[in-house]
Amino acid sequence: MNMAKTKVHTRYVCQQCGRVSASYMGKCPQCNSFNSMVEEVIHDEPVAKGPSTVRGLTGRSIPRPISEVGGEAEDRIHLPIGEFARVLGGGIVPGSIVLVGGDPGIGKSTLMLQMAMEMADKKRVLYVSGEESERQIKMRAVRLINGKKELPANLLLVTETNLEVILNHVRDSKPDLLIVDSIQTVYLSEMDSSAGSVSQVRECSSHLRELAKSTGVSVFMIGHVTKEGAIAGPRVLEHIVDTVLYLEGDRFQAYRLLRSVKNRFGATAEVGVFEMREGGLMEVTNPSEAFLAERLVNAAGSAIAVTMEGTRPILVEIQGLTSPTQFGNARRTPNGVDFNRLLLITAVLTRRVGLKLAEHDAFVNVVGGIQIDEPAADLAIAAAIASSWKDVPVRAEAVLIGEIGLAGELRMPGQMVARLREAQKLGFKIAIVPKAIRKGEEYPKGIEIIEVRSLDQALDAALKKDK
Ligand code: TYD
Ligand code: MG
């Protein structure tokens, strides 16, 4: 008999979390998703293992004294898009691998192409697309440049999905920057599963990571987000890459936030703000001003919150609307704030402040289409609702900062001084804040601080007419 080297058997891999099982399961025991297990054929012959060409490049490691290790203040590559650079932690790190996730149509390809064109002034960039033809990308590039300058000669485009071929292109054209649009379209032919499956996504990104680490090329991969809001194979991917960025925003609004959720080379939760326009994504360097631009002063049902996005405070307008419930149960409809947070705030308004919201629907909207997940905005949300219910505007010159507790008490959020400075910079005269138990840093002068202990007192102060 022939000494068969390859033994073929099958396994089942959860497409959500990458859990492997020998038999089919309707529900994944790791992430609890249903019908997410997909059969894969495995050849026991170590195809992907062994000294593959990519892996062999890593070279030997030599322990060195810490003082002799290079890389002071990092040799980052300057990125002329300031808002993007801030999210990366100050520029592109050579040999790093970055995942850019986001909903379809949100602007990931646009952002990457803009970056590619900016970088191609000084560096060599290879843009690999598995989604669009070279012609389509060129047309977009022409539109983005809009006759302002020449198309850069150092930007190479190729439509390709076979990762082996892509790696060969990288070897031949030796770019400083590689963009893969998207990781779900590339595949390794030695694997049986289809492009976009967890195994393909994991193996392909591991290869790209090896490439980055061994050659120093910086890799950006675009990743699609599933219906549930996660990048396909999220956990596996997050461990493989150095940095995970999400581009988010309301598709029907112009603002886009680029947020870092993991960053080996900088602060996480850092946020860059852009606006989608005809000519692509434009930086918004003063987001508070932009978010407040369309505000109606002295209208009931509007309050200003100061939220921290990464290290930067941003002022946003929160709108509230209450209206008598038409059928049955009162509804709570948040847009831009967490549903459960809204339930809590309306419950506290009902029980501790005495607003009769039980037979009123309550709607909350964060202007500009951004999502706030910080409890520091509680007070502004409550004030917007109370203001609508009482039909009394919140004092136009006031910002409200504070987390609401179940007893109607207020708690102090972090970074108060930074928040107050931003409010002052934008011309606000009053800040309604929780009473400090121990005074930390000195609050800025020039903005009147009204310290209150409870939600009740805060609303009294906020809904008073300006003198
Ligand atoms: P795209 O970058 O293709 O999204 P993704 O790669 O995340 O799927 O962007 C798609 C949207 O952006 C599309 O609806 C059109 C819009 N857009 C503009 O408004 N202005 C522009 O200059 C460009 C290039 C796109
Ligand atoms: Mg795209």
The gist of it:
This protein has 467 residues and is α/β, with parallel strands linked by helices.
Which descriptors apply to this entry?
9-stranded mixed beta sheet, 25% strand, 3 domains, Ribosomal Protein S5, domain 2, globular, 4-stranded mixed beta sheet, 467 residues, binds magnesium ion, 12 helices
Protein model, in words:
- With 467 residues, the chain is α/β, with parallel strands linked by helices.
- It folds into three domains: 1-45, no CATH class; 82-285, Rossmann fold; 289-462, 2-Layer Sandwich (Ribosomal Protein S5, domain 2), CATH 3.30.230.
- Helix content is 26%, strand content 25%.
- It is built from twelve helices and 21 strands.
- The chain has helices at 53-56, 82-88, 108-119, 134-145, 163-173, 198-215, 234-240, 287-292, 339-353, 378-390, 416-425, 455-462, and strands at residues 8-14, 20-21, 37-43, 97-102, 125-129, 155-159, 177-181, 218-224, 243-248, 255-263, 271-277, 280-283, 302-309, 312-324, 332-335, 360-366, 398-400, 403-404, 410-411, 430-434, 448-452.
- The strands form five sheets. The protein has a nine-stranded mixed beta sheet with strand order 6-5-7-8-4-9-10-11-12, sandwiched between helices. Strands 13-14-16-15 form a four-stranded mixed beta sheet.
- Strand 13 and strand 14 form a beta hairpin.
- Helix 3 packs across helix 4 (134-145), helix 9 crosses helix 10 (378-390) and helix 10 packs across helix 12 (455-462).
- Magnesium ion binds at residues 108-109, 131, 181.
